Amino acid sequence: MNLPKVTKSRLSDKVTEILYDQIRSGKLKAGDKLPSELELSEQLGVSRPSIREALNRLMGLGLIVRGTYTCSVAESSDLAVRSAFVPMLLNDWETRDLFEARRLVECDLVRLAVIKASPEDIAELRRVNEKMKRPNLSEQEYWDFDIEFHTTLASMSANTVMITVYDMISTIYHRYEGKVKKLYDVQMTTYSNHKALIGAIEEKDVEKACEIVNRSMSISEEAIYNLNKVAK
Fold first, then answer.
1. Its pTM surpasses 0.85
2. Geometric angle at alpha carbon 67, from 65 and 69, rounded to 5°
């Protein structure tokens, strides 16, 4: 497979775009194996972490799957539908636009969760949230457990369209992973905010649940926005 060298600054985005074009054009077909991370790194002229981030994005969209030794193009019949989301992923969205969309989607998911949540769902949310109390929690564990909590919450809506929309926004949100891992003040409040949200869902209090979502999202948004200003 002949691939062009990458020269633009956002390397993982460009790698994602190149691999997406290979899938969209049919040069990479369902079931085809991709070159290894090392081979892609050498062919594209970028580091392996950039390759890995691009592959993770495409896996998040369901376009590729990871095997024992390498990745391959997904066999799923709705591959073409999900591939249409990739240009959205590559857009350089404004931080406030992304958080506004995420707040709206999460509030709607919470409303559905309040209506549909079973005692088993509540117990599962509590189980996931308790992971946040582990001693010496690493930055990566914090990120993974927080994503797991919100993904579990989304699944409680039992609405496949809303879950798909949430998955798309969550995938775009991954571009802030490095910054979120450094928001230590926000991390200190995550467990208690999640606990309060679980309580509101259990009490069937939609307004309280949405208020908790809006408050916690606003705090995270402001913290990342300030980090971006400093970086500039």
1. no
2. 135
Give the SS3 label for residue 186: helix
139 and 24 within one domain? no
User: Could you tell me the pLDDT band of residue 89, with boundaries at 50, 70 and 90?
Assistant: low
Domain boundary among 62, 86, 110: 86
- Domain total of the chain: 2
Q: Report the C-alpha gap between 43 and 145 in whole angstroms.
A: 34
Within this chain, do residues 129 and 197 fall inside the same structural domain, yes or no? yes
* Boundaries of domain holding 109: 93-231
What does DSSP say about strands 71-73 and 64-66: parallel, antiparallel, or unpaired?
A: antiparallel
SS3 30: coil
pLDDT attached to residue 196: 96
The C-alpha angle with vertex 178 and arms to 176 and 181, in degrees rounded to 5, equals 105
What is the arithmetic mean of pLDDT over 154-178?
83
